[in-house]
Amino acid sequence: MAFGLWVLKSMKQIRIHGRGGQGVVTAAELIAIAAFKQGKIAQAFPSFGVERTGAPIESYARIDEKEIRTREQVYEPDVLIIQDATLLNVIDITKGAGKNTIVIVNSSKAKIELNLSLPKKNIFVIDATKIALEKLGKNIVNTTILGAFARATGLVSLSALKKAVKEKFKEKGKNVIEKNIATIEESYNSN
Amino acid sequence: MKTNKQILEGSRAIALTINNIKPAVISAYPITPQTHIVEDLAKFKADGIGDYEYVRAESEFAAASIVEGASATGVRVYTATCSQGLLLMTEVLFNIAGMRLPIVVTCANRGVSAPITIWNDQQDVMTIRDAGWIIMFAENHQEAVDQHIMAYKIGEKLSLPVMVNIDGYILTHSYEPVIIPTRAQIKKYLPDYKPAKGKYLDPANPVTFGAFARPQYYMEIREDLHNDLRDSLDLINEEYEKYNKLMKSGSTASLAVGPLNDGLIEYYGPKKAKTILVSMGSVVGTMKEVVDKVKGVGVLKIRTYRPFPEEAILNILKKAKNVAVLDKSISLGHTGPLASDIKAAAQGKLNANIQSFIVGLGGRDITQEMIKKIIGEVGKSDEGVRFVGE
């Protein structure tokens, strides 16, 4: 996977898709916390459905150099994170994505097998489920996939992401923090 | 004064602020629809960092009654609610205002049933619009934090309750940078609450609260409440200026305190706007974004909805040709409540065409496109209230 070299010239909008119970909301929060730790202005918020395990859920993050005022959901994402590839056949997941949108998908399949109608050079596939099962011992991929997000976009650094995990999971204890950092590192460094 | 900026969930930001305000009693009912605010406050108490009595009530009616009773004993209190919970509190909330108790309540605005909704709009608070409370709306986390601190000061000075409204989910569940004033900073602005003798329940000085009033007294007591609410307009502005001077932390720090930005309203846009959009709460942020892209359009934010700041509003709207009022609630069978208020205030004083637009009911996302559509439509026809959902 190439290193992302995005320079933040204008606001970047991130949309995350997943299912209830996969930590979709937490993922957006972690992105915002990490960006804030790097001196950026950031916003994160969920689009709640009726909170139910397995139901499709979206969350959003925005990163900018200046105050973020808009509250609308993200309709034209600069980055699309897909935590659960089974959603590809369920909802119009790439809606609003353009030729420059970076897509990060959790899947064990190859890029071409996913049949995404977006430029292949912008699609990054990571088997986050495999990494999460190995490092965390459970199929919650929200932190894992953020390693690939940091690597592919450069919008947040690996160290800022680690700081965000430490802050967000403070009450969950050292063990949880260490495991999540290990999974992020593995995903960041994988090809 | 400088404080550190943090990135926090809106509910957490408010909970930390309330903890620093040091109420003596907090009571809440933990069920959907509730927020992380009272959950966090319960946790602070359990962790030993909150020194208040935390009473878990058996219903929202009870939670309101508990803070009502506690406040009557002369201490600072807090609760949060929204939606069906606020509806259940309604009877008590009218009593609180009538008894002149300076209680602060956060309403995390959400829609009401039926059909069942858990999502954001501002219909809930409209139920108590006429109850005698000071009603404020926050655009973002910082404004919410600041308004809670000012709410206690204003409420305790005037013996009036204050409700701070923050959009459910959009503000309560979002993360953004915010500064939480420290206990020391807050104490400088907001002294400990010490009600005067005879103004609280005290066995040494027996008084009655909420007594029976026969027809020869009731009307004057209600008139007093009304007059005190009207008079609070000036104090709200004074306190806004004092607070901003002391904290210099407001999201509006770039805006000078003055006729375009005070405790009652904020105007954003060109000096001579042909069209002005008016609204309350978090949608104003999205509107500001649109106004930057469309020429000749301004946004008027209502920070204080009750008492209603007619004078400040008319001062901004006087030169506009078209006024679009965006309500996230509706007086069913009539029009948007804010639109209705502005039309009444404008009677004989404005020539502008004032139109009511209903947006964002039951969690419908309000997009920049919708706001542009409203700008294009306002003034073209006057067919009464318009629902804009896409």
For the record, the CATH class of the largest domain in chain B is: Alpha Beta
Largest sheet of chain B: 7 strands, mixed
Shape of chain A: globular
| Secondary-structure-derived class of chain A | alpha/beta
List the chains of the largest interface with their residue counts.
A-B, 23 and 23 residues
Number of domains of chain A: 1
Q: At the fourth CATH level, what is the homologous superfamily of the largest domain in chain B? A: Thiamin diphosphate (ThDP)-binding fold, Pyr/PP domains
Ranges of chain B where pLDDT stays below 50 over 5 or more residues in a row are: none
Figure out the total of helices of chain B.
12
Summarize this entry quickly.
The complex is a heterodimer of chains A (191) and B (390). Chain A has helices spanning 24-37, 128-135, 142-153, 158-168, 174-189; strands at 12-19, 41-47, 56-64, 79-82, 102-106, 123-126. With 191 residues, chain A is an alpha/beta fold.
Characterization of this structure:
The complex is a heterodimer of chains A (191) and B (390). Chain A has one domain (12-189): Pyruvate-ferredoxin Oxidoreductase, domain 3, CATH 3.40.920. Chain A has a six-stranded mixed sheet with strand order 2-3-1-4-5-6. In chain A, helix 2 (128-135) runs antiparallel to helix 5 and helix 3 packs across helix 5 (174-189). With 191 residues, chain A is of the alpha/beta class. Chain A has five helices and six strands; from the N terminus they run E-H-E-E-E-E-E-H-H-H-H. In chain A, 32% of the residues lie in helices and 19% in strands. Chain B has helices at residues 10-21, 36-46, 60-72, 83-98, 123-126, 141-158, 183-189, 215-247, 283-291, 310-317, 337-346, 368-377, and strands spanning 5-9, 25-28, 53-56, 77-81, 104-109, 134-137, 162-167, 175-179, 265-268, 275-279, 297-302, 304-306, 322-327, 353-358, 386-387. In chain B, helix 6 (141-158) packs across helix 8. Chain B folds into two domains: 5-246, Thiamin diphosphate (ThDP)-binding fold, Pyr/PP domains (Rossmann fold), CATH 3.40.50.970; 265-387, Rossmann fold (3-Layer(aba) Sandwich). Helices cover 39% and strands 18% of the residues of chain B. Chain B is α/β, with parallel strands linked by helices. In chain B, 53% of the residues are buried. Chain B has twelve helices and 15 strands. Chain B is globular, with a radius of gyration of 20 Å. The chains are: A alpha/beta (191), B alpha/beta (390). Chain A binds chain B through residues 25, 28-29, 32-33, 36, 41-48, 50, 67-73, 75, and chain B through 7, 9, 118-119, 140, 169-170, 173-177, 251, 282-283, 285-286, 288-289, 365-368.
